[in-house]
Design a protein that fits this description.
The protein starts with 11 loop residues before the first strand and ends in a 14-residue tail after the last strand. About 20% of the residues lie in helices and about 20% in strands. The protein has helices at about 35-40, 40-55, 85, 105-115, 165-170, 195-210, 215-225, 295; strands at about 10-20, 25-35, 65-70, 90-95, 120, 130, 140, 145-150, 150-155, 175-180, 245, 255, 265, 270-275, 280, 305. The chain is built from 8 helices and 16 strands.
Length: about 325
């Protein structure tokens, strides 16, 4: 069981070093932290260090917003990290030039839960912001809307940057710069083959509404059915004597029944899945997805067994 020290009963000591620039400006500060500081932010410690340093080296004063703390291994601490979590008792901490890193995970969490933040409605932005931080160069976004067609995702203004994956699509950088806004874009209409087809269907529906309706739905059905040619039955495949057609997915081969054996057929036990442009087999892991048909056809089969024409019991139980 690891030893755990009690912060409340034992002092918390740190040794801070500043070794940037000229060696005659190096500074070391050993300190015993007040109990309140131990559960507070790292910035409290670094601010105190800067205050002490500037009191000694007034001609080389440090800016508390332009320095940060690191451990001996070079790991940087956020200004809002908790002291007792970030540091170890009697640890040597190094003060370095450069603003402390942003705690992006914490910032994102705060933004998600902050009802006072506005959400930008520019295409491809969705950034949450405050109006006082907004300016003419705050937002890089797209001037035209998204297009989703045949598995592709792209912005109408950047049609040369097509993507299949949603995350890749959202990473396409904006092409215009301007202020954030809460107003949805106007005049930059989404145009895609799907929208065009929907408009055509709407126009056809309007045209049909202007045609006089039949009083009797039965008459309408009879006339419609009479005008349609009867479908021709699909001719049954004539197979050579002693041969059969394998019904396994990704096989479908014609085989000689007498030569069928337990390693004759390589096939997929699942079914083909086509979703959002991706192609894969349900029996294989999803990391074998592909968007290209030829690559999909070349995915290695996951089962080996007898050919089967679908009649009788499956000669490959459990596959």
């Amino acid at each position: 069981i690891p030893f755990t020290r009690s912060r409340a009963s034992m002092p918390f000591r740190l040794t801070l070093h500043y070794e940037e620039g000229a060696s005659d400006k190096y500074y070391q500060l050993s300190m015993k932290l007040p109990k309140k500081w131990v559960s507070g932010y790292v910035s409290k410690v670094t601010d105190y260090f800067v205050e002490c340093y500037n009191g000694k080296y007034k001609d080389n004063a440090l800016d508390p917003k332009k320095i940060h703390a690191e451990n001996a291994g070079g790991s940087k601490f956020h200004a809002d990290d908790i002291v007792e979590v970030a540091f170890i008792h009697k640890e040597h901490v190094y003060i370095k030039n450069g603003a402390p890193p942003r705690n992006e995970a914490k910032r994102l969490e705060e933004k998600e839960n902050d009802p006072t933040l506005l959400t930008c409605q520019n295409y491809g932005c969705q950034y949450r912001y405050r109006e006082e931080d907004n300016d003419a160069k705050a937002c890089w976004h797209h001037k035209k809307g998204p297009v989703f067609w045949n598995g592709y995702k792209y912005w109408a203004c950047c049609s040369d940057r097509k993507a299949y994956d949603w995350n890749d699509f959202m990473k396409v950088p904006g092409c215009v710069c301007g202020p954030h806004t809460t107003e949805k874009p106007k005049g930059a209409e989404l145009i895609s083959p799907t929208i065009i087809a929907a408009r055509q269907a709407e126009a056809e529906e309007t045209a049909r509404a202007s045609v006089p309706k039949l009083n009797d739905i039965n008459n309408y059905t009879e006339k419609t059915m009479a005008s349609k040619p009867k479908p021709k039955p699909k001719p049954k495949e004539v197979l050579p004597d002693g041969c059969a057609r394998c019904v396994h997915q990704s096989c479908k081969k014609l085989y000689e029944i007498a030569k069928n054996h337990e390693k004759a057929c390589k096939y997929h036990s699942g079914h083909a899945v086509f979703h959002d442009g991706a192609k894969y087999w349900s029996c294989c892991t999803e990391n074998r997805k592909t968007y290209d048909w030829d690559a999909f056809e070349k995915i290695p089969k996951c089962c080996i067994g007898y050919h089967w024409d679908g009649s009788g019991s499956n000669p490959n139980p459990g596959k």
